[in-house]
Structures are given as C-alpha cells and as structure tokens.
Fold this protein.
Amino acid sequence: MSAPKPTLLALVLALVYFVWPVDLIPDIFGPFGRIDDLLVFLFVAWQAYQYKRKAENRAPNADADKSRAQDPYELFGITPSATRDEIESRYRELAQQYHPDKVSHLGEDLQKVAHEKMLQITEAYRKLLAAAGPQGENR
C-alpha cells in the first residue's frame, strides 16, 4: 500500500478545517466565519498546484531515462552487422550534432534536450562498442 500524496492529505485536512466549528474566526459569525476557512482552502489548493507543477517539470527527466533504454542500433541508425569503424564514425557525427557546446547559444531548454540526447548517444556508443568486441576485431 502506498502512502497518500502530500497534496491529497493537505486537501483533506483543509476540508476538515472547513467543516470543523472551531476556527481562527468561529463559524458562529455566519459568512464572516468562513473567511479563514476559505483562505486555508485556497492556500492549500495553491500549494497543491505548485507541487503538481514541480512534478511536471521533473517528468521530462523520467522520460529521458526511459528513452535511454532504446535500441542503440536504432539510435545510431546502423545495423547490428556494422563494423567498429562505422560505429565510431557515426558516434562522431552524432556527437558533433548534439554536443552541448554546439548548442550553447540556444535557449536553456534546447541545451537540456541536447544534454539528454548526448547522454543517450554516449550510453548507446558504450553498448555498441561492447557488442562489437575487442578493438582489433571487426565483424
């Protein structure tokens, strides 16, 4: 069983505060007694919104981790029968295209994308070299 999300717990507590008769401004004052309840509920809703936005900003990194697991041959655009020289040549081409230094003049978002792509390329390159065998051996 997973723990409840902090936002859900906060919203439930805000709802309990709204219904509970003992408040900072007692509910016996009619509509004026609900002002503090409404403020607490709005504050918690705003916090939940901020928490959700932060989680969405972290989501692309999770997607990037998943996409790193893609087939290295597909990423490089080569066949499994490619030689070590072909792998190295393709790596150099991709590194020139996606290296973060090459996109440093572009916006921060594109720099992050290029960084993630370069991590994928480097990881795929290592896998391909390991699959190609020792350095002197060509298939």
